[in-house]
Amino acid sequence: MGDRNSDGSTGIATEGGDAAGAAGTAPDAAAGGPLDLNLLRTFLAVHRSGSFTAAARLLGLSQPTVTTQIRALERQVGRELFERLPRGAAPVPFADALAARVVDPLDALAAVTGHGGPLDGAPAEPVHLAGPAEMLCHCALPALAPLVEQGVRLRVTTGLTDRLLDELRAGRHDLVIATARPRGRSLSAVPLADEEFVLVAAPTWAERIGGVGRIAADGPAVLQGTPLVTYAEDLPIARRYWRHVFGKRLTCEASVTVPDLRGVLSAVVAGAGFSVLPRYLCRDALAAGALVLLHDPQDAPINTGFLVQRPGSADNPHVALVRDHLVRSARTW
Asked: Is the pLDDT at 25 greater than 50, yes or no?
């Protein structure tokens, strides 16, 4: 993804209700004991939908009942779980961790009992997912294939982060894979995956500059005269790599620009020159010997991608299903 383009709060999120005050500041006598399954189901519904009101509709409960149950769970765990927002509720980090622990067991239990499973009932609306074309095509869509087979429908949009986040705020998307954490508090974001950037070329170019260890010995000047392949004229990923690894400003111009990193990869594998690419994108080519690492620094630059959802944006349970599946799958990207 590269250069392409909340702080603490008071009370529990209860849109249309009162804040929970000191909920979560001190555990009561039940803290540390077994957690009530009904409370956990309600918690997961709020976490998935991003809204107490939406969770109430999904569960067939009243909004005050959902609020009461979340307060009860907060007393049990001794922590605040959600942050109040103008529209919806944003989970605190502890809530994200709790959701990750309970989502699989609760979904499995729902499937066995036939109650509340995310795929039960009438067909849900399509999930509108957006993000960088490369990560969507190389990582996200293959990971989501099993859900499609089970009936989840996807509508996918590619683009740059700033525009996609603006469209998310406007309600055009349900989820966005973003190259940076969004500013402000209107959007809920969780870290998705770190991408490492690597300096690569076809083996023939490595030989021309004197071997894969030449840059480590003599610095990046040995690449002078070697064509650079990048996805934009301003060389954002390559410039960042040069600053981070070599502490220097990259001054060369691109020989080939392709506005898609998959195209950059194809050109570099074919021998067009060198480039800086996400490791996940060129892992197979490196393993096959079609590309080689020109340099292997101890501290390679990385970029953290985020999965962003607008709280209260959808009552569709498949949105939460896609989100949770992406977060789990991204651990292997």
From this structure: no
